[in-house]
UniProtKB/TrEMBL annotation, chain A:
Lineage, opening ranks: Bacteria, Pseudomonadati, Bacteroidota, Flavobacteriia, Flavobacteriales
Keyword set includes Cell membrane: no
Name of the protein described by the UniProt record: NADH-quinone oxidoreductase subunit M
Subcellular location: Endomembrane system; Membrane
Highest taxon of source: Bacteria
Keywords annotated in UniProt: Membrane, Transmembrane, Transmembrane helix
Matching Pfam families: Proton_antipo_M
Chain ranges passing through the membrane: 6-21, 28-47, 67-91, 103-122, 128-148, 160-180, 200-222, 234-254, 266-287, 294-315, 321-343, 364-385, 397-417, 438-457
Organism: Flavobacterium palustre
Family, as annotated: Belongs to the complex I subunit 4 family.
Topology with respect to the bilayer: Multi-pass membrane protein
InterPro entries hit by this protein: NADH_Q_OxRdtase_chainM/4, NADH_UbQ_OxRdtase, ND/Mrp_TM
TrEMBL record, chain B:
Identification of the protein by name: NADH-quinone oxidoreductase subunit N
Membrane-spanning segments: 25-43, 55-79, 146-169, 189-211, 223-243, 255-274, 286-305, 311-332, 353-375, 387-408, 429-452
Principal place of residence: membrane
Entries under InterPro entries matching the protein: NADH-Q_OxRdtase_suN/2 (IPR010096), ND/Mrp_TM (IPR001750)
Length: 480, 455
């Protein structure tokens, strides 16, 4: 058993979904995503008992490229995040009707395929191909099934596409350049390349451009809010829950170990970028009138902190960043789903038009409240573990970093609770709000269960990721 | 050699069809004949040989590219059936001209003598002039043909002048002899001048900046099928010939010459892309996109000793994407007067398959992974970086980003606009050609070594 099986399942799933026709598409997609989840759990087991789950096959002779998939703890946990969120995301869309549903669900599975490939590939070019492939489905999902005015949506989505493509093409140049030096695209060979300071700096920034746009790190975030707002909720969940983790994962996997000197030199600047994102995102979120846009900016703030954690280059920072990636993935999907639940009933995303939901829908109110609290990193939630670890590692570097980074919790609490108050509390709204149905409850409950479970017991994840993070740091510190 | 003779024989056969009034059978028979010729070509791949005192050199390079030309011609001939529906009486002329054009193309990549080279160019060009103005009653087509003829014959004149100067300097038309003589220390000044003149003439044929002005008008005015031929087959032939010419005659490229190539390449990419952004006519847009692709293909000249595989790969990926795109364009604009983007509105709803094929071919041209176009650009960049032209690669990448802008304009039109009329029935042959071409393109992407290691 090896990881290529999972990719095949997802790819076959995408085609099967397309050919299943509009009526069955959602169910087939859900089925395949659940099979993929089962497979990735089985892969995790196989990995834990020491079985070799990597896959290697030559592809192109010159330049030498191979189908090379390697799974270590870090890849596996990202894979699990992807395959756990995908069925949830697909299931969460069951209340909606989509035109041309077969293409819609096929694109979702195809995107999951591409994202899983990105997390698994250990050949630079293969990784790049998956990285780009993930972009095409989300482009069409946001473009065709998005909401709002077509012209405006078109602008936002095209901007997003061109931005991301532009960034990644510079990464491609970096890879091709590295290939000249190493004679191979394989990650272990790329780690061994001796690069001069100057070369490292160029390559570092080429990678940074690709990742900073994807994550997004300030000042490359301008595409984000509009796209999150205009995309259908499923697309927003895929983007914020999984796709932006591709950027963060790549920082850890590719950028830092390949260019250690540059990473160390730019450490304060990069943490500065991250923390600037935290503060900027939080302040802008305060002023948002659109619920989805508010969540987009809050996501920007959280991701800024994760990015800062990745660039601390110490084990606590890295571990915290990975934990927070997972936690953020779940919470943000939950929050966007809550926004979608409200939209299904009220047909609006403007915060001012909401209010008075709590009295009508107590179940939804409590579930939403838990998600809001998790998002502001209340102790016992998963987010607390992640954020606290990152802040601790920032404190080790400079107390000011920790202090400024910590504003995420304070400002976050402020805008999230204010949002909750405006959306849920207040006078009874004249509009009727039916409480959450079974589907919706199930999705929210699963997310909340995950958040609490790993909030109280993060050890299994820690044990899984720490060896691979140690490995990354060892590669990083090979040159003193 | 046998390939060339067989092609000419097939062309003559086409003309005979008219006499015997068997026009209905012409397309199937020509397609089968071309497939047989493709087999012949493959058999020649492993038997390098020279014919008629080095007039023709048949080798891996020539048979590899000839194979590509034959495949493209098969596609173009298959599309002809529907396209010339209203000109049934002239169909055998049109097909025969295409076959002779192919003969010219094959002669161009297998020349061993500059006389043969020029002969090939003229056979190809004259066929193209005729095809450009083949829509006799349309004033635009007439204009295109005349424009192309005037400019093209001027370029041919320059090439001929260059050949004369080379002969004056070297005393021979034979490329191997010229190549050997060119290594000697003292070269008469005529030789580089001649080379430059031939180079300029060829740049005109491939429509590289600053010799590109004919392309948009001619592409727009010509009948759509001729435009398809020009932007795929004719462009690929010209680039391959230029490559062979530079490679055989001028093995050691001087830095000054490299600089010229870099400048022309950058100018072609940039001008082509920026002009394409503003076009509303799809044929014009693809003309400018072709100019920018010519710039990319010129990059192969910078590492000329080992880039023939890359060039074959790039041209195949580009031409196959072009064929797929044009069969969709032919389908959409069959009943329309022009090829404006508005005609493509709502194609995603009306005909999802055709829209998906056009999207795929545009993504391939833009260089998005898994399609052949991505790997083509990758191999190209890889070789350019190997030859230490990093700045050129960065400019090329920026150009790729710009190109996404106009390729996506078309994709957006297909998927976000409302259709302006009801469905039009699709002839199966358009489907078949489009699907096969795009499948071949994706197969190129999945198994790049197959083509890359041919040469």
């Amino acid at each position: 058993m090896n990881v290529s099986l999972l990719l095949i399942i997802l790819l076959v799933g995408a085609f099967a979904t397309y050919f299943a026709g509009d009526k069955l598409a959602s169910k087939v997609a859900l089925l395949f995503s659940l099979v993929a989840l089962g497979t990735s759990i089985a892969l995790l087991n196989a990995y834990n008992v020491g079985e070799n789950i990597s896959f290697f096959k030559y592809w192109i002779n010159n330049p030498s490229v191979s189908y090379s998939f390697t799974a270590d703890g870090l890849s596996l946990i990202m894979l699990l995040l992807t395959t756990t969120l995908t069925p949830l995301i697909i299931y969460s869309s069951f209340g909606n009707e989509y035109k041309n549903a077969k293409s819609f669900y096929a694109l979702i599975l195809f995107m999951t395929f591409a994202m899983s490939g990105t997390f698994l590939a250990s050949d630079g070019l293969l990784y790049y191909i998956f990285w780009e492939l993930a972009l095409i489905p989300i482009y069409f999902i946001a473009l065709i099934w998005g909401n709002g005015d077509t012209e405006e949506r078109k602008k936002a989505v095209v901007k997003f596409f061109i931005y991301t493509l532009a960034g990644s093409l510079f990464m491609l140049i970096a890879f091709v350049y590295l290939y000249q030096k190493a004679g191979s695209f394989l990650i272990q060979d790329l780690h061994k390349v001796e690069l001069s300071r100057m070369e490292q700096f160029w390559i570092f920034w080429a990678f940074f451009l690709a990742y900073a746009i994807k994550i997004p790190i300030i000042p490359f975030h301008t595409w984000q809010a509009k796209v999150y707002q205009k995309a259908p909720t499923v697309g927003t969940m895929l983007l914020s829950g999984i796709m932006l983790k591709m950027g963060l994962y790549s920082v850890l996997r590719w950028q830092i170990p390949i260019t250690p000197i540059a990473s160390k030199t730019y450490l304060p600047i990069l943490i500065g970028f991250g923390i600037a994102g935290v503060i900027y995102g939080s302040i802008v979120a305060l002023r948002q009138k659109d619920l989805k846009k508010l969540l987009a900016y809050s996501s920007l703030a959280h991701v800024g902190l994760i990015a800062a954690g990745c660039y601390t280059l110490n084990i606590d920072g890295l571990r915290g960043a990975v934990l927070q990636m997972l936690a953020h993935g779940f919470v943000v999907v939950g929050l966007f789903f809550a926004a979608e639940i409200i939209y299904r009933r009220f047909g609006t995303r403007t915060i001012a038009d909401m209010g008075g939901i709590r009295t009508q829908a107590p179940k939804f109110a409590s579930l939403f409240m838990i998600l809001v609290l998790a998002s502001v990193a209340l102790p016992t939630t998963f987010n607390f573990v992640g954020e606290f670890t990152v802040l601790y590692s920032l404190y080790q570097i400079n107390v000011w970093f920790a202090l400024l980074g910590g504003t995420t919790i304070i400002l976050g609490a402020y805008y999230m609770l204010k949002m909750y108050q405006q959306v849920m509390l207040g006078e009874t709204n004249s509009k009727v709000f039916a409480d959450v149905n079974f589907h919706e409850t199930l999705v929210l409950v699963i997310i909340i269960a995950v958040i609490f479970f790993f909030g109280l017991y993060p050890r299994p994840i820690n044990e899984l990721i720490t060896p691979s993070l140690d490995q990354i740091l060892r590669t990083l510190n090979r040159i003193q | 050699m046998n390939t060339l003779i067989a092609i000419i024989g097939l062309g003559i056969l086409c003309l005979l069809f008219e006499i015997f009034d068997a026009r209905k059978a012409i397309i199937p028979i020509v397609v089968i004949g071309l497939l047989a010729i493709l087999g012949l070509d493959i058999s020649e791949y492993n038997n390098p040989n020279t014919y008629y005192n080095n007039m023709l050199i048949v080798g891996k390079f020539s048979s590899g590219f000839s194979g590509l030309f034959i495949i493209l011609t098969i596609f173009l001939v298959s599309l002809s059936h529907k396209f010339y529906e209203n000109h049934q009486t002239k169909i055998s002329d049109f097909i025969a001209i295409k076959i002779f054009l192919l003969a010219g193309a094959v002669a161009m990549v297998s020349f061993g003598n500059l006389a043969m080279f020029f002969l090939g160019i003229e056979v190809l060009s004259i066929a193209l002039y005729v095809l450009a103005s083949s829509n006799r009653l349309s004033i635009k087509s007439n204009e295109a043909g005349l424009k192309y003829f005037l400019m093209g014959s001027f370029a041919s004149g320059i090439i001929l002048f260059g050949i004369c100067l080379i002969y004056g300097a070297m005393g021979s038309f034979d490329v191997t002899e010229i190549s050997e003589l060119s290594r000697s220390a003292e070269l008469p000044i005529w030789f580089p001048i001649g080379i430059v003149l031939v180079f300029i003439g060829m740049l005109f044929k491939i429509a590289a900046v600053p010799f590109h002005f004919w392309a948009p008008d001619v592409y727009e005015g010509s009948p759509a099928l001729t435009t398809a031929l020009m932007s795929t087959l004719a462009k690929v032939v010209a680039v391959a010939t230029l490559y062979k010419l530079v490679k055989t005659m001028n093995a050691d490229i001087s830095p000054a010459f490299q600089l010229i190539i870099v400048i022309v390449s950058i100018a072609s990419m940039t001008v082509g892309n920026i002009m394409a952004l503003r076009q509303v006519n799809v044929k014009r847009m693809l003309a400018f996109s072709g100019i920018s692709h010519a710039g990319f293909m010129l990059m192969t000249l910078l590492s000329i000793s080992k880039s023939s595989g890359t060039l074959l790969y790039y041209t195949s990926a580009y031409a196959l994407a072009g064929i797929a795109a044009f069969s969709v364009i032919l389908y959409v604009c069959k009943t329309k007067e022009n090829e404006d983007i508005t005609n493509f509105h709502g194609l995603g709803k009306n005909n999802p398959l055709m829209a998906a094929i056009l999207t795929a071919s545009l993504l391939s041209m833009a260089g998005i992974p898994v399609f052949g176009g991505f790997f083509a650009k990758l191999f190209l960049f890889n070789q350019a970086i190997q030859a230490e032209f990093i700045a050129l690669v960065i400019i090329a990448v920026i150009n790729s980003i710009i190109s996404v802008g106009y390729y996506f304009k078309l994709i957006l039109a297909m998927y976000t606009k409302e259709p302006n009329e009801t469905k039009i029935p699709t002839p199966t042959v358009y489907y078949a050609v489009a699907v096969i071409a795009i499948v071949l393109n994706i197969a190129l992407g999945l198994f790049p070594s197959f083509v890359l290691d041919l040469l």
